[in-house]
Amino acid sequence: MGAHAPGATSGEVPGSSGARLDARVAAVAPVRVAPAGAPGLHVARDGAVRAVGAGCRMTGSMTVWAGMQLGALVLVLCAVVRLLWWWSLTPTERRAVGLGRRVRRRWGALAENLGLCYEDRSSEVGHREEGRVICRPRIRVRWDPYGVVAAVATLPGVGIEEYRKHARFIADAWGCHAVRVTRLHPGVVRLRGLLVDPLSEPYVMRPDGAAVDLAGLHVGRDEWGEEATISLTDVSGITIGGLPGYGKTSLVGHWFAQLAPSAAVQFAILDGKGGADYADLGDRCFLRVDDEMEEARGALRGLYDLMRARQQAIRSVRGTANVWRDGPSEDWPLVVVIVDESHTYVQTGRKQFKEAAEENGWHLEQLVKKGRSVAMLTILVTQKQTADAIPTAVRDVCQFSLSYACKTDDAAVAALGADIRNHAEVSPVRLVGREHVGVAVASLPGRPGFTRIRTPFVDEEHVAELARRTAALRRDPAHLLTGCTGSSSTLRVLTVGGDEGSA
What mean pLDDT is predicted for residues 208-236? Predict the structure, then answer.
């Protein structure tokens, strides 16, 4: 037997009809080339087809397997990130996260059990139960370090009063020690649930040297864990009262640290204690006196003259009768007059100082009553804000009042007004005790009733360093006014160190 011809199969004779047919088919059929590396490559057409098909199946399997591995890797990374996030939370924050989930999941049943739902007889939208259409209020929940905040929709017949009525039951259901109900905007009520008391936690702040907006002077953290601020716009008087050692001077230092970096604010301090509490702030103050009655008399007289001169010049210099229309500026700054232990300067019991005390009281009254439009703010600080410490004509016209702990209801009324008798649960009389140092009661603008606030502790060394750093911003408002009017003036002020000067 001879050798097989190319393209002939075993058992076929070269030149036979079968061999010639196979040769013709091979000549017209395209040659299939398997992908590089594909297993089972054969020249025969049907074999090549089978090899390519096997390679496609293998490639598809590898793609699915790679996708599964990538998906598993993503899930593992997500789990690791979430675990690290969970470990970064404090125990209270972890409780708050869990509470937020439970509130969201169980709200519908709780609302229905408390009667905060209603039966809709005119609409088919709602939750059907035994042939009725029950509409439940929608809720959105978020957590924070103190608990949860929920925004809940109102319903016909279910508004803020109904939520306030059931606040204590909601607190029990959520496991919170208190739930506060406020109106967020029309149609939405906010429920604030607290797991911990924000007033019980220490609050320490370090001045960062950034000037504050005068419309948002920071006061502290309120009893619901929110930052409390007040606006100094159109404010001429603030009173701060409370027992010694509870945080009055620290609050003044906190305000000083916020305002000192602004050249549009100048300070005058009258320290009735005569101690060293404000000695380190002198570099930033254009006026500072201690407990000397005659020096205080001259200082208050000079401040009164400055107010009168500003009233006469405001139209020509600012083009308006109220500085707050455009706000204070470097050439017309807000003058902050801090009078600590103000009773030192106004008590008339000492015969030799009776005339000076009466004059000081009158000047303080004029500053508080008339200083608003010319940007002069007087802050009166004293332990007991009764009539013998602050004249009622001064105390009753101050726009903002704050009181730390006091021992009697009369002292609380003198500090916060007669309405505090109707809010005995937040009276400063309840704040006596070392655990309440730094906690005060205030009547905040825009908030009903009274609010308890923890004011921050500010290290006096940091405040003193800030005063030294901003000393170059100190200006005498009398000199600035003379520069604005372009005329000579006989205004007299006491500069730092007790030397008298004229502008």
Answer: 88
